[in-house]
Design brief:
The chain is α+β, with helices and mostly antiparallel strands. The protein has a single domain, classed as 2-Layer Sandwich (Beta-lactamase Inhibitory Protein, Chain:B, domain 1), CATH 3.30.1450. About 25% of the residues lie in helices and about 35% in strands. The chain is built from three helices and five strands; from the N terminus they run αβααββββ. Strands 1, 2, 3, 4 and 5 form a five-stranded antiparallel β-sheet that branches. A hairpin with a 2-residue loop joins strand 4 and strand 5.
């Protein structure tokens, strides 16, 4: 009888476990994306958005900002990506899962 009660207690307590939400990457707000304009320098972009998560050693002209959020309790996952392309030191285009300003949309 005690063995059955202890097994039931284990199952009941394991159902009450809280799992932490996990956020990784750059948390970008749409209001910050709206501040981007063609011609901004790399330093200006870092000031607005912060440093990118992915630093491509072979292509210094492409920056990638990644964000993921996992809600373990609901089993949901959100992933977002923003890719910025530079020509030299100037921002020329952007693409990704955010609303991109018209001046930066790739043709």
């Amino acid at each position: 009888m005690i063995k059955k009660l202890s097994i039931i207690l284990v199952f009941v307590l394991s159902a009450c476990v809280y799992r932490l939400d996990i956020q990784q990457g750059n948390i970008l707000a749409q209001k910050d994306i709206d501040k981007l304009r063609a011609g901004l320098t790399k330093n200006q972009v870092v000031f607005v958005l912060g440093s990118p998560v992915v630093d491509d050693a072979f292509a210094d002209d492409k920056w990638i900002y990644l964000y993921s959020y996992k809600n373990s309790n609901r089993g949901t996952m959100v992933k977002k990506k923003l890719e910025l392309v530079f020509d030299g030191d100037k921002l020329v285009s952007a693409a990704g899962d955010y609303d991109i300003p018209e001046s930066l949309k790739t043709q």
